[in-house]
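Handout, tutorial session.
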Amino acid sequence: MSTHDTTAPQLPGYAHVYSGKVRDLYAPLGPDGEPSSDELLLVASDRISAYDHVLSSVIPDKGVLLTQMSLWWFDRFADLLPHHVVSTDVPEAVAGRAVLVRRLRMVPVECIGRAYLTGSGLAEYRESGSVCGVPLPAGLGEASRLPEAIFTPTTKAPLGEHDQPMTFAQVEAEVGESLAARLRALTTAVLARGNEIAADRGILIADTKVEFGIEDAPAGEEPRLVLADEVLTPDSSRFWRADDYEPGRPQTSYDKQYVRDWLTSPESGWDRNSGAAPPPLPQEVIAATRATYVAAYEALTGRTF
């Protein structure tokens, strides 16, 4: 079993600040030994999460793959909005899977864009004909392409709890009308441009979660939104193989669907609703998932991993 790298590494010269499901955050220490208030070291681990659990197994090289893919995408959105990366000059122990970033106030909403209907969005549509309050045409089904990308935000729930769908009015109440409108416009713009680029490379991006930070602006100006965390990776998005796309059925995916499928199969013996932690992944599921991440990276960037 591959179970290394489930804890945050100790890094000399950096203070460990926080560990999320997949990422570890550190503050660089200044000459006086105090943590920086301006910058953070964002380290992508090889941990993998599914169904709101962090698994005990890891996917080798996942942290490097996601970090390099995000850097590739950040360059492609430079004219749309700034990103949080300051430098890729990081400690040797986390080389390739870490970036030095600006410290930002993170938007307290999960900004999700959907270009195709699947997952929880499809379930909600079947009940109400809409997703997060956005009405959709009748007659859509599994993997239907939407007329245009839509904004379907959720709450940011604490670890182990479920994010809840939000309407646009609820986002406005949370962050204000102006910021809500910009979040919606930028989330759908990132997804639409991502699909334009990825389609030429054989990938459809069904939906994605985009993280934004807020940078304070001079008096009288609106605060700037900054693209943060990761962007358009197989962890934050559903990637489908374009040459195999066929509405009306589940799609062949380039993401962690192998993991989800195994966990909900009889073979795993795990009950999603039991509250128990999922079992370790078999070696073949780990290998297939790593191969999927590598294939997505290579197809998108045109680089060999």
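The second record follows below. Compare its token runs with those of the first.
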Amino acid sequence: MDKTISIFSNINTKSILIKDVLVSKLLNKGYSVIYNPSEDALLNICIGGDGSFLRAVHDSKFSQVPFVGINTGHLGFYQEILISEIDTFIDDFINDNYSISKLALLQGIGKPKTNEYDLYALNEFVIKSKNSSIVHLDVYIDDYHLERFAGDGLIISTPSGSTAYNFSVGGSVLYHELKGYQLAPIAPINSRAYRSLMNSIVMPDTSILKIVPDVDDLKNLQLITDGNVTDTGIAEEFEFKIAKRYINKLVFNPRWYWINIKDKFL
């Protein structure tokens, strides 16, 4: 049986030191280590903060090989393993003392005049202007016109991404394995001229969200995928839904999610 483990690390000095310690311990346990994605690996270990975890997920093209994170950053909602727990983590992994959580992905489909394209996000998609001006967006849920939004932009987030950008604009926290996703406004305008929802909306995972920008806003729009700006190709329409794909995350402490909520927010 191949005992290969892929390791992803940021370039922070602390992360590099921990990576060297981890590699030595894994080699002593009979594992081989690589530093690139591989579908033949047993595990993807991400060293750093949540940004490192997201980069590893994208670099691996949303691999089905399970992910786990060692936290050397600050927030660490995806990074369950503390530096002091590395030996325990290795022993628990060897002895199968863990569960696997399937984290939903969002699929975003952009529809410019030329070729349609699709993208995937673990945390969120954001539609906003390039210069912080007001954007006007028609919002449809399952082909029903819900609102004509006016404001800074919209965030479409997964349950596991609900504690990221979504939370900072007042969106709801969704349990990471909940079946659904969320639409949250960024600085919505509600006046005589504009009627925009002021709060987030939670949709079932079967719903399809369509966003149609005002034609005058097309050249000024940007789509941000898990923090990375994507060239929208002046898309006349965006469609978002829960993807058929997902990622696997190892969970060693069944209460880790609630521990995170209390430690980070309370």
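Points raised in discussion: The domain at 105-244 is CATH 2.60.200.30 (Tumour Suppressor Smad4).
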